[in-house]
Amino acid sequence: MSAPGNPPAQRTSATTDSEQQNGATKAAGITAGRYIGQRTPRKEDPRLLTGRGQFVDDISLPGMLHIAFARSPIARGAIVSINIEVARDVPGVHAIYTQEDLASFKVDMISFFLVSPDIKTTPLADGRVAYVGEPVAMVIADNRYIAEDAASLVEVEYAEEDPVVSIGDARTGPIVHPGTEDNIASQMGEEEIEEELAAALKSAPHLITHKVVHQRISQSPMETRGVVVTREGAQELTLYITCQSPHLVARWVSLALGLPQTAIRVIAKDVGGGFGLKNHPWKEETAVILAALLFDRPLKWIEDRYENLTASCQAREQEMVLQVAFDNDGRLLASHGDYSVNNGAFPQLSESNIAVHMFLWAAHKMPAYGFLTRGWYSNTPGYAAYRGPWGMETLIRETALDVAARRIGIDPIEIRRRNLLRLEDQPTESCMQVQLEDITPAECLDKLLANFDVAEFRTEQEAQRKEKRYLGLGIATYIEPTGGAGSIPTMTGELAQVRIEPTGKVTATMSTHSQGHGTATTMAQIFADRLGVSYEDVTVFEGDSSRGGFSPGAAGSRQGVIAGGAAIMAADLLAARVKQLAAHVMDVTPELITMDDGMLRVEGNAEKSRSLAEIANIAYGEPDRLPAGFESGLEAQYRYQPPPMTFSSAANACIVEVDAGTGFVKILRWISSEDCGTAINPSVVEGQISGGLAQAIGMVLMEKVGFDERGNPTAATYKDYHLPAISDIPDFEFLHASTPSQSVGGMRGVGEGGAIIGVPTLVNAIADALVPFGEVPVELPLTPTKLLSVIEGRDLGEKPAGEQPVIAASQPVRVEVTPAVITTDESTAARIDGDWNMALSTPMGAQEMTGHFETSGEALSGYLSSPEGQMAFTGTVTGNKLQFDLRVVKPMKITLKYNLEVNGDRIAGKCKMGIMGSMKVSGQRAP
Amino acid sequence: MKPAPFDYVAPTSVEEACAILAEAHGGATVLAGGQTLMPLLNLRMSQPFILVDISHIAELKGIMRIDGGARIGPMTRQCEVIESSALQQHLPVLVEAVRHVGHHQTRNLGTIGGSIALGEPAAELPAAAVALKATIEVRSIRGTRNIPAAEFYLGPYMTVLEEDELVTGIRFPDWSLNHIALFRELAQRPGDFALAGMVGAMSIESGKITRAGLAWFGMGPTPMRASAAEQKLLGCSLNDIDPQAIAEIAITDTAPFDDPQASADYRLTVGTRLFANTLRDAISIREAA
Amino acid sequence: MSTHNIEMTINGRRHTGAVEARVSLADFLRDGAGYTGVHLGCEHGVCGACTVIVDGRAVRSCLMLAVQADSSTITTVEGLAAPDGTLHTVQQTMMDEHGLQCGFCTPGIVMTMAALTAGGKKPTEAQLLGALSGHLCRCTGYQGIRRAAQRLTATDSREIRGGEE
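YS: structure for the whole thing
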């Protein structure tokens, strides 16, 4: 912080500075200021350090009652009967609800993208249960102790069926959701590799086929889920809920329950971590909201850790096989990926992770890529996001590159350098049509290597191997799409509202939300800098849906980028108003005025100086002294809509030692070289990266949500679900590249990167250490048993993931679509002509549409209509097969190629969307 | 995660406690430090009618010199053992074992008797009691029993303790002042249960091993006494010992199992190594001294 | 189900209450005495968020019944800062070192640090980091927590640690 009256030279004026920046550089990066770029202490800390935070369990309302759930002890089956009589008689119990009681509410359990679920999803189990831990009944009682007493007395009789647990089970086992054709929750891409790509792979000098199995992860925020709901009269509902954006929760509840959003207020002052789990309410929270409406008393449900580890939504559990073809110099020729992710029974989104394929080779000179991507239903807790949900792309690419480097016989750093895009290669477009203008993974790698002597390490590694000590070096690079806005309804800009109070202090209301992100700190730094006031004099409010504007909060590494831009713009608008008023009061031109340390000064005329408070008092209270047309008060707001995507880049290195006697991994050194553009607060940036890297270390070495063959969770407490402790995490070293982005302020997102790049960095280091023994199968977590198996060259007994035995008792009852039966006496027109209700399975959920077909011989014409509009087409008919193309321009220019087949009253087939691959279409004749 | 209802009593004498246990006919559970029992109560895996808090019974606390050894009251907190200079001098291996129990915060409430009476097969203290040839004093209204630790454990969390019996003391015999202490465990993180661990002591007189006590933890359904290896060591001088050979004998007294943390094969492989290395290191330190 | 009258001193103030036998100390501190800075992260003694100081020692308040704490003296995170709001050394050090993000695990970590450094004690780095291994933090990757711990420990801790290993 600068001394009063002694401002750093470059901070002559916020506005001028911004103009200079915009003029001087292509990007709108901001230079380090008095606060921007500084390791300012956090605004949030004093209350959190003294126990004065306000987490959801700290909320206590008059008349509040407590909820506990009775949950399914089986993974799959029908509910035969529910008897609540004994439980209801427990003293202190007020009510017990089952889905039957909640059925009067029409609830649409929409996704983060606000799309209705593909499969019927209810708050409590509706006739069937589909995972161990599924809530079946809820008890409302005086306190949680009594609620649990009664929940244990709810008697439920089940007709148990054999469950579908793993992805392997889902491929071959029974149908998870009765009435569906198969267990595919979502699918895109081609089931057969296209000929041209297959030929390119086959003819390449080197073809690597690399498999990665990623275990299931519990997001495990230290504060579990929880909600306090109070209905205030007939019209108002207030929710205290641990979440990632109060605004998004208000929007979600409004849409899910069909209530006016104005009637819903969502408050979440402090949240103990989210990591993707708390994007929006799910079964339990929704049940509590409905119960509060039914019972009309404030209700509280706080998830306990057992529930959190066994019944909350979970993440990852993926399998992927990647083929990569190289020429003799290690240059990329072609690639194909086959990806599967376990969606559980009721995913928050039917997910097949198209982003994995979009970004897999985006930073590389890759000529051709094809894929098949699928999500599978199973009888396990539903899928939800976890920091870097698409991170498999970096994991499988970076580990495959190391395998390839060993196979081809070139250095792992060299293979990256030969294939990575450099700044001078841009702008360009990837083989998946991702536009790239300013990514810097190669430059981050340069910076990393300038600070780390690889040759020295290799000498040391060689020497140590002779002593039977196994050191390994892992290197990885990546890019990450951050600050996304405009392509998904919920991914929006951010709103900053800022005012200079009559006291001269600054108050801002932001659409941001912190679950530890420190947005109240970083935004205050921006306001203090741009308005020339002390950081201590700025207060930032967030965490209340009744204030500020809509934003999805922490989702997709976006708040620093977008809200940072909004804060800069709002502050600059306000600064201009302050100067306009001050110039009028001082009788000088606005250009002569500087704002610093809460003072407005005129260059060369100290007598004219005024405090910001004096000017603010005039602005609010002395309308006669305002310039003509000047609105009273000192307030400004700005909603910033950033570029659609802002990329971050990084290169990481770590050194490990693997104990050849035990298979234990010790991390000796870890260097992060990242480019997040302007770092508003380097300590906050490093905090985000460190937390992500720790989660990466957990994923590689110890965390695992497992199930037995009946779908029972095998890690129900922290004794069995191992989170990394302080002893597991090394000191991280940081290098910051700081290439300004195209967004206002030049920030790039940094929320998820550590969790993405950390995984392959560590896997590669372990694999490098064990090169003398052979390749390490990438089946996470890499437990001591697995690593010792590699070292000893024998299977020490743990069953490899993904090769779980198929449950013997289960009979495959997969429903096959009946083959086409074309009856000769039925005309083509009779079979096909007319209206059909169809659904297109897109990554953002099912898109409903109506198809109208008219045939004339082999000619087909008609139109498809959806809420977005109606589009006509012409095509051909062969037997019962229809073919037609549709040219669309939004969201991108693309030709949709439809191939459909009519069988009786059903229609099914595919829609091929260019490089996005094929999506399923299904439907039936309109009544 | 809230316990089911129970009554709580806090007797102030062993007699009173034993009377309560006898009267409850199995419905009572003894609360010592509670660091393992409380999670079980919170998870409702344990649902006693009566919880008998023995922390108000003065005679169950403290570390005493007795003839030929030390007597530790079951309510002695684990942190008190770590801080005991007498035990640091006479039974360093016990102190070392206690240092590895749980975490700092649980050692502040956790007790010696609680851990020993519970019989978690991967826990340090039951194995230490077996290895150090401790005797467990047990009282009930029917009388007193002195049970050698090696005969105390029947299976995971199963002991010979009857439902009306209370552990009233653990007697550790003296080991010669120059005895060799052995302790090592392999765990993923501090406070985790061991993937494999061993604890032991060897008394040496006139250059020969006159007494040996060895036990495994995390290597079977109970703490596993390595009797064959103990026998093999008797009468040996230190430079006669082949640590690898002893470890291979010791591993025959184990019966490890698969769990999500490690496979049985893994435990056998690293257990043998850990045992051999511990013995080898202890001998080389002694020979260097 | 028995009910018990208890009395304890919490953060220098006397508290009395009647509690059911099964009520944990953590729940009593939060709901009975109003000290909501005591956070429940796992209720089975692993995460450490509920750590408080009972009679001078850091303990898990989820692994203790309220009735067991009868007649004891307890400090929670609310009791550390000076009455004028000046942060306790541990709190200030954690703030200086960016040792927290969401702040949910923080009260427990602060209490362990406070217990081990009470009365000017200088634990070794190994002792303090060892004790901190009983706390889980999902946000920070422990970087700031470790730096804070190092600042709170004896300067010659590395030497002492070497001796202990």
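YS: worth flagging: The radius of gyration of chain A is 29 Å.
IM: good catch. Also The CA atoms of residues 115 and 845 of chain A lie 6 Å apart.
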